Amino acid sequence: MTPRKIISLGLISAGSMALALPFTAHAEGFVDDAKVNLNLRNYYYNRNFLNHTGPSVQGDDQGQAAEWTQSFILDARSGYTAGTVGFGIDVLGMYAVKLDGGRGTIGSGLLPTHGAGNDRHAADEFGRTAVAAKAKVSKTELKVGEWFAVLPVLRADDGRALPQTFKGGQITSNEIEGLSLYGGRFNGNSQRNDASLERMSYSGVNTNAFDFAGGEFKFNEKRTMVGLWRGELNDIYRQNYLQLTHSQPVGDWVLGANLGYVNTKDDGSSKAGDLDNKVYQGSFSAKTGMNTFTVNYQKLSGDNKFIKVDGTSGGLLVNDGFTSAFDGVNERSWAIRHDYNFAALGVPGLSLMNRYTKGDNVRVSATNKDGEEWARETELAYTVQDGTFKNLNIRWRNSDVRRDTGVGVDAQENRLIINYPLSIL
């Protein structure tokens, strides 16, 4: 499927749904407030497996997972029609093509993998179109369809060539100052390297839907936020999440804290078996000038690793990184991080991040002992500030991860990601 076909399908779908909406005669806002952006994403991924810990491919140890793609992501969002109830349409057209990658280097997550045994290979291209209708009354919005949704208890993953999307419905209300309320259901999941829309699942076990409800209250001049969320993957698990964040200026410093507690148990008929996991975590930051220093602590307990819908991001966890979420059974981990903005040195748009994370106490049933892992991660990023290529962003991510037997693979990894957003409307 070519980029032109993806975009055409998106526009046709949007037009068809738009005709079905009960438009009033005053539809100026639908067009006048519309925004259309096309993001050109070029992604190179190379993971070298060390110490014979990688998967097997073509009957031998896989030395590396390496692929290169070019993506086209069209994000078209209408405004709302005039009247007491405003209506609109959002369209997300996505297409990715393989630039490089062989049968022996599959598994980067950039592309779908087809075939079986020694015939496994990456797709040459894939894409999909997501369309959602929306309606708004006052400060309350209803959205129905498919889109890229990011909620604390259900985070779509946008860490590869194309973003993950969910199909369902969501209500968001901001009627009370400082209070945001959310609720809804998703019953379809299109993962980041899959063109199809599948049922919601955990560990390969399918179910009919994921239900959620949550609220976030900001006060103290919006420096403090308390959030409470509940998610239920029907007949598989139920999850509660409590979060507290605070930001406090102290002289030339800004101190920050992000505290969280997650409790997950099996639900209903327990289609994936007995489940039990708890997470206690805290992230503490200190920013002064162009420097930000961060220290994280994360502790899991229970009989399972962190539990989430298949394919979703682990971004709820404070120690979720490029190579590991440090979310093993009973794992505890800490991290130190430093961010620097080079604007003070006369290079606005350039930033550098370095992070080291260490995890231990991982319950490894195969070896009947506790395991350990560590990761070192660096990201150098630059965003063009003006001129023809304004807003073009280049990121280089370099990382190393080492793990005990049974915890996971040892690897060295490099990623080069270029995003060039173009404003069409």
Automatic annotation (TrEMBL):
One Pfam family cited in the UniProt record for this chain: OprD
Keyword set includes Transport: yes
Entry-linked InterPro entries: OM_porin_bac, Porin_dom_sf
GO cellular component: membrane
GO molecular function list: porin activity
Annotated signal peptide: 1-27
Swiss-Prot/TrEMBL keywords: Signal, Transport
Family, similarity comment: Belongs to the outer membrane porin (Opr) (TC 1.B.25) family.
Family annotation (PANTHER family): CHITOPORIN
Protein name: Outer membrane porin, OprD family
Organism the protein comes from: Phytopseudomonas seleniipraecipitans
